[in-house]
Structure formats: C-alpha cells, structure tokens
C-alpha cells in the first residue's frame, strides 16, 4: 500500500493476515465482523492466502484487528523497535508517529523522545519487509531511522557499538557547542561591558564574519529539520529556531548594508542570532547528557550479561565459549567470584549468590543442588555446576530488560493531552509571532523592535519541554524501581498504581512463606501412619504447597507410600484416586460436604485447630456406596517476617488492605488479626477471586491485587493493578502490571510509593512546561524579553524538566 502525507483520514486498500480460519463460514464471519467497524467501506477475505483485504483509513488497523479477534480469530502481530534520529520536540514525536501509523499493517506506534526510539506493533507475517517500509516512512517524514536488534531486548541490546556511537555523537555535539561559544563570545562581549560604562563595538563586517558560520554551519541542523517539517505541512522546534535566528540575522545584514560606508552599526543583532543558536545547542547537549542518565537502569542490567560461559564437555573437560553458542541443557561451570552466564539449576556445589542488581535483594542468597540460579548474578565463594535452562532472549535478565524497555517506551494516559497540544502548538506560535511583529510595527512604527520581539516569541516557545516532561519521568521512575526489584509493566500500570485505594492480598506465598508444614494428622478410622501414607499417595508428584508438606512429613517418618491410580484434581476442592483398590478423596470441607461425608464427629477438634490458624484437609474413602471419613490433616504456615511492616506502610499511605484467600475463615482471620488487615474474604474459589476484586472496585475505588499463583491470575487481571510476587509463576507475572522480583511483601508499598512519586514528577514537569510557555510567550510579545534571554530560558526549560525527573533516582524503597 502506498500512502503519502496527508492521507491519514483517506480510505485506501490494505491487507491484514488472519489465522485460524478453516472454511467458508469463517470467511463470512470475519467479513461480517470487519464490515461492522465504522469507517470500513469494504472487507474481503481470501481463505487460500489467509488474508483480509480492507478499504478503509489505515488508522483503523487496530480497530479492524480487534474486530477479527472478537470474531474468534487471530491477527498475527510483531513488535518492531526503531531508533529514530533527528527528533527535537513533541511536534517531532507526533509527526513520526503519524508517519508510522500511515504504513500498512501498523496496529499502534509509540515514539519516546527521551530514548529516541519508536515501538511499533504491526500485523504481518513478514516483519522484515514491513520493517523496511517503516524505516522508509520515517525517512520520508524527515528523520533517520534504523532497526534495533530485538533478540536481546531493544536498545540495550545494541551494546557496545551503539553505545560507542552515541558517545561519539555526544562528544561531537560538545565540540560544536564549544566552537559556537568561541565564535559568539566576541559578539556578546560589548553587551557585558556596557553596564561597566565601556562603550565598545566590533566592526559590522567582523560581527557578520563571526555570526555567519554559527548561523549556517553550526545551525544547519535547524534549517534541515525545519525544512523537513515544513515539507510535511507541520512545524517543530527547529523551524521556530530557524525562523527566529534567520530573522535576526537577516535584519542585521540589511542594516549593515543600509549603513555601509557610514560607520553606523549600533543596531546590528548578529549577537542575538549567534547566541540563540549557541544556547540552543548547549541546551540540547546538556539535555542529551541528562537523558543518558535516564537509561542507566537498562545499561546496568545489560552489563550484567557475560560475553562467555565455561561449558563442561561430555569428556569432563571445560571450555570457554561465546554465550551465543550455549544451548539449553548444556552444563556450565561458575567459579567463585564469577558472574553467572545463564539461567540454570545447580547440579553440583553450593554457594552464596549476589542477585542485588537483578532482584534488589541486598544480601547474598544461598544456592545448593536443585536450586535455580539467575544469569547475571555474582557467585560467591563456592564452585557451581549448572544445567542451563534458558539462554539469550528467553533468559530472566533478557526478559527483565525487555519489560523495562517496553514500559519506558509507553505513554502515560496524561501524555494524550500533550500530544493534542503539540499538534497545534507550532502553528499557534507562528501566528502569535506574526501578530507581535504587526502590532509593534503598526502601533509604534518600530519594525525592528517588532521583529526582535517576534524572534523572542519564536525562540522561547519551544515544545521541547512538553515532549520530554512525561517520558523523562517515566524512564527515571521505572528505571529506579527496576533497580529496587520492582518491574512496572507499562505506563498504564504506573498511572493507575498511584491512584490505588485498596490492596487485596492472596495469603499463601504472599503474606505467608507459602511452605506450610503438617502439624497434625488425626485418624478417625485406622492408624495415623495409614492415614498419612494414604494422603501422601494422593499427593505424590503434586507441586501444591500442602501436597509437599504431606510428602515431606511421610518421608520424615520413613513411611511406605503406596501407588495411586486414576489420580485427578478437582479444582478448588481437592484430589481423588484409587489406592489399594479403594476410592479415596482428599480435600476441603466443601469437597467432603459435596461427597456426603459426615464431619460432625470431628467438628470440635477441627474448629479448635482452625481457630489457631490451621488449614485442614480431610481424607475420605468410599465404603458400601457411601463416603466415610478416615481422618483429617492440619497444616500451619509461617507469616513472612516483613509482612507486618508491609501492612503498616500501606496504612501509612492511606490504603485499605483486604485478605482474599481460599483458606478457611479461621486460618484467614488468624493471619488478618496478626497483621492488622482491614477486611477478610475467606474460602474463596479461584474463579471467585476476580468477582471479589470487582466487588472491591464498586463505587469507583481503584484496587490492586497481590498474588503469586496460577489461581491468582484472573484476579490479577481483573484488578486495576495486578502485583505479582516474582517468586511466583510466570502466568501470574504475565497477568500482572507490576512484578516484584523478590518475595518481600514490603515492595508492594514501595511500588505504590514510586508510582506516586513518578506521577507527581510528570505533573510537575507538565505544569512547568505549560507555565513556561504561558508566561514566557506574552512577556516576549510585550518586549520584556530579549531574544538572547529567550534563547537561554528555552534551553534551560528542557534541561530543567529532565533534571527534575532525574531526582527520582535518589529514591530508595523502605524494603531496600
């Protein structure tokens, strides 16, 4: 599909791939769903090529894709990361996003001015072809783009070559600033001497000689970028600077020519044009230096990845090989003091491992045979032999880098306001500058003063600060959080986290250690040993915490555990199987009631155990066509040492804490009383946790859900903000908006705190960016700001916004 600038709202033919169609009815269903999308004029599906041809504005690609998914089919999507060079302000961001969204198959496009990157979601089976089209679209918009290697996670994967190139560019910009300053200093020197009573002026021809290279050599970047913007029918900061300095320079040349031979050069303004360009270049250099600090978290994480690994061969020999050659299943040796190269499981040895830069855990953690080790951690005093479980893009470190980069590339909802303002900002400023010139010229007759004031309006009205206000704060806040072991999935999660009023907690593995132990086994029929052996048979092979507790207790007593057949789990209730020819059921009181088991004889004893916070499971057998109770098992779990402090911090932040647990009411209330929780919802089935979250959200309250297991995933997704414990399952982490990289529940309060601070920085930056222009433009128009002062103020505004965001790097959570 070919599109040109200005066709965003025009219908055009384009295509999307569709997966999952099998017959003509599928074709009809997709076409019907797509034609129902407002704005779609035609929709035709080709079953043979599995593609959908659409006549509609390309901007409807996302809506069409959603319609296909609602119809029950999939539109294959890929994420393409681009580095974009040449952007200077919020207007540039809007122009690049518009150009990308015009391209065929683009579902969404987000550009981050602070990182100078574009994140594009495309619907295609040929991402390589579409990437070249996206690069061409960016080039056509007047900027330079290149693809980023996604294998290692975006920009950070470009080390070290891209890092060296960025450093060289930054140094080159510094040299240009120095040259501009040296050329401009003689021009501004008379202004500095005037207050001292020294009346001295450079000859006009010398002023022109000094100002010209600054204007057309060092300032060429503004002309090029401004011309590209003008060709595209938009404006940006570069256009304003180019117009403003050209006006001051042109006026000076005209006055110099007018007074040639008369020795009158009192009214030349070469210093204004030259100093403005110098200050803008200085501001961009300082801004670039500050922006590099916002990506320190990514670079620090990326630096954790070793370049080589010591692999043990089949013959027992060891060889260092490039990390890219290591495969899953390989045995990797980690010597004392070395950095772990891969994700793996310890086969031999034991050691203390420092994971502080990955999880934020300040103390080394013990690792022995059977324990998992994360790539990037630093080995302590022991020698470890690991079996590789993940390498490259699938490693924990690479996934963390991708998550942080993806989050930093996103836009907070408040950024939509900035985008709308940026779209009309430059044209509005041009109108104000023109009105300033006309008003001064017509009302006072001083067209030279009018032109200088118009120049001041053009220069001070820089949309740079607006473009940097949100992304700089997001990058600094999310990067700082990542260093403390808090991974924020996207800007939406951060925007909602600071509004949270209620925090709902799962109990097991979240507020408690999640490793319950068997504290009692009471037999009603038969012996205690028989009861425990039968229960262990039903729990054999299960990874459920209660199942492990039973198995560990049976092993500790050296019991012979019989084999179970026809073993199956009953969701939210328990398990059933055949043991020694007898049908057995092990599970909750609800499961027993549904099976018709009479629990009356054990109610007093069970109630007393539950009042002490014990979790109880019952074992029943089928005899004579009915189910009879064989006995019951009581489990105890230990509350995490940090849980009480975590709840105190949440209350200090003004939040309500609610326990949502599948355990019995006694166990749940015992935990709630010890920790000071505000509400308890017990005996909740996994599918009902999402319903409880919905009830908590009633009345417009914002709710966060904290959990660690697969059964928590629906509730994590249903909450405004899902917070997954990093020691939990991948399913929970995927469903959550925030992941805590270690099992320290105090990080929940830290996550809310850093989100509040980041949101506050965004508001501060936007306030000052808007206030700067709201105050500065009228002052410039009224002649109260010289162009030089306007240039300095404009440069200061961008640096101030980024520097304010960088204050977030000082933050340290209470759990650190």
Summarize the structure.
It contains 27 helices and 29 strands. It is an alpha+beta fold and 816 residues long.
SSE arrangement:
Elements: E1 12-17, H1 24-35, E2 42-46, E3 51-56, H2 61-70, E4 77-85, H3 90-101, E5 106-112, E6 117-123, H4 127-140, E7 144-147, H5 161-193, H6 204-218, H7 220-231, H8 237-258, H9 270-294, H10 296-302, E8 308-312, E9 318-322, E10 331-334, E11 343-348, E12 351-354, H11 356-359, E13 365-367, E14 372-373, E15 378-379, E16 384-390, H12 396-409, H13 415-444, H14 447-460, H15 464-483, E17 486-488, H16 491-497, E18 502-505, E19 517-523, H17 528-539, H18 545-556, E20 564-570, E21 574-579, E22 582-587, H19 589-595, H20 603-611, E23 615-623, E24 626-636, H21 643-652, E25 656-660, H22 665-675, E26 679-681, H23 686-696, E27 703-707, H24 713-718, E28 721-725, H25 730-735, E29 738-740, H26 747-781, H27 787-806
């Amino acid at each position: 599909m070919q599109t040109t600038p200005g066709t965003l709202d025009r219908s055009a033919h384009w295509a999307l791939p569709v997966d999952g169609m099998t017959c003509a009815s599928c074709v009809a269903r997709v076409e019907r769903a797509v034609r129902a999308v407002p704005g779609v004029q035609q929709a035709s599906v080709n079953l043979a090529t599995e593609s959908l041809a659409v006549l509609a504005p390309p901007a409807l690609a996302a809506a069409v894709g959603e319609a296909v998914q609602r119809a029950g089919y999939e539109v294959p999507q890929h994420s393409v990361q681009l580095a974009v060079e040449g952007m200077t302000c919020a207007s540039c961001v809007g122009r690049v996003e518009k150009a990308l969204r015009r391209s065929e198959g683009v579902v969404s496009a987000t550009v981050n001015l602070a990182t100078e990157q574009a994140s594009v979601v495309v619907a295609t089976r040929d991402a390589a072809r579409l990437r070249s089209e996206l690069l061409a679209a960016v080039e056509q918009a007047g900027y330079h783009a290149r693809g980023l290697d996604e294998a290692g996670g975006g920009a950070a994967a470009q080390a070290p070559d891209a890092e060296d190139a960025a450093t060289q560019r930054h140094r080159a910009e510094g040299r240009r600033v120095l040259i501009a300053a040296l050329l401009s200093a003689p021009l501004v020197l008379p202004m500095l001497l005037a207050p001292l009573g020294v009346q001295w002026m450079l000859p006009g021809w010398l002023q022109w000689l000094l100002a010209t290279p600054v204007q057309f050599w060092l300032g060429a970047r503004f002309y090029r970028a401004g011309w590209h913007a003008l060709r595209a029918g938009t404006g940006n900061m570069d256009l304003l600077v180019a117009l403003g300095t050209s006006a001051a320079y042109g006026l000076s040349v005209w006055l110099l020519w007018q007074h040639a031979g008369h020795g009158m050069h009192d009214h030349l303004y070469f210093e204004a044009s030259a100093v403005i360009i110098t200050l803008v270049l200085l501001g961009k250099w300082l801004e670039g230096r500050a922006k590099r600090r916002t990506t320190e978290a990514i670079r620090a994480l990326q630096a954790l990845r070793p370049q080589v690994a010591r692999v043990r061969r089949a013959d027992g020999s060891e060889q260092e090989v490039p990390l890219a050659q290591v495969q899953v299943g390989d045995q990797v040796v980690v010597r004392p003091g070395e950095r772990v190269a891969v994700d793996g499981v310890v086969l031999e040895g034991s050691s203390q491992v420092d994971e502080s830069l990955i999880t934020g855990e300040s103390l080394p953690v013990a690792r022995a045979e059977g324990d998992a080790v994360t790539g990037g951690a630093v080995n302590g005093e022991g020698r470890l032999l690991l079996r590789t479980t993940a390498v490259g893009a699938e490693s924990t470190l690479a996934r963390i880098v991708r998550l942080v980069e993806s989050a930093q590339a996103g836009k907070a909802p408040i950024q939509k306001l900035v985008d709308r303002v940026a779209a009309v900002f430059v044209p509005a400023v041009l109108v104000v500058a023109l009105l300033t010139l006309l008003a001064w010229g017509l009302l006072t007759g001083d067209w030279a003063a009018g032109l200088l004031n118009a120049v001041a309006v053009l220069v001070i009205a820089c949309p740079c600060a607006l473009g940097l206000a949100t992304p700089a704060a997001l990058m600094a806040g999310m990067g700082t959080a990542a260093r403390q072991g808090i991974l924020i999935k996207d800007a939406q999660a951060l925007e909602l986290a600071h509004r949270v009023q209620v925090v709902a907690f799962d109990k097991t593995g979240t507020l408690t250690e999640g490793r319950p132990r068997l504290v009692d086994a009471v037999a009603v029929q038969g012996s205690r040993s028989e009861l425990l052996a039968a229960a262990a048979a039903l729990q054999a092979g299960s990874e459920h915490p209660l199942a492990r507790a039973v198995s560990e207790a049976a092993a500790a007593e050296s019991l012979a555990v019989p084999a179970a057949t026809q073993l199956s789990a009953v969701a939210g209730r328990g398990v059933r199987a055949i043991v020694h020819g007898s049908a057995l059921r092990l599970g909750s009181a609800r499961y027993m009631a549904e099976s018709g088991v009479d629990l009356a004889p054990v109610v007093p004893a069970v109630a007393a155990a539950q009042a002490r916070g014990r979790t109880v499971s019952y074992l029943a057998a089928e005899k004579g066509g009915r189910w009879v109770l064989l006995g019951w098992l009581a489990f105890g779990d230990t509350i995490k040492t940090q849980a009480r402090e975590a709840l105190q911090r949440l209350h200090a932040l003004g939040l309500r804490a609610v326990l949502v647990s599948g355990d019995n009411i006694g166990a749940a209330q015992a935990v709630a009383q010890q920790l000071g929780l505000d509400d308890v919802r017990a005996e909740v089935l996994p599918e009902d946790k999402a319903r409880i979250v919905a009830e908590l959200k009633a009345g417009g309250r914002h709710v966060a859900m904290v959990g660690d297991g697969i059964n928590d995933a629906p509730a994590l997704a249903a909450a405004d903000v899902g917070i997954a414990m990093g020691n939990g399952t991948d399913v929970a982490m995927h469903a959550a908006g925030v992941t805590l990289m270690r099992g320290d529940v105090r990080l929940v309060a830290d996550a809310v705190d850093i989100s509040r601070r980041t949101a506050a920085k965004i508001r501060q930056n936007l306030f000052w960016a808007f206030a700067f222009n709201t105050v500065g433009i009228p002052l410039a128009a009224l002649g109260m700001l010289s162009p030089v002062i306007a240039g300095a103020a404009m440069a200061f505004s961008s640096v101030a916004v980024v520097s304010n965001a960088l204050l977030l790097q000082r933050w340290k959570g209470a759990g650190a």
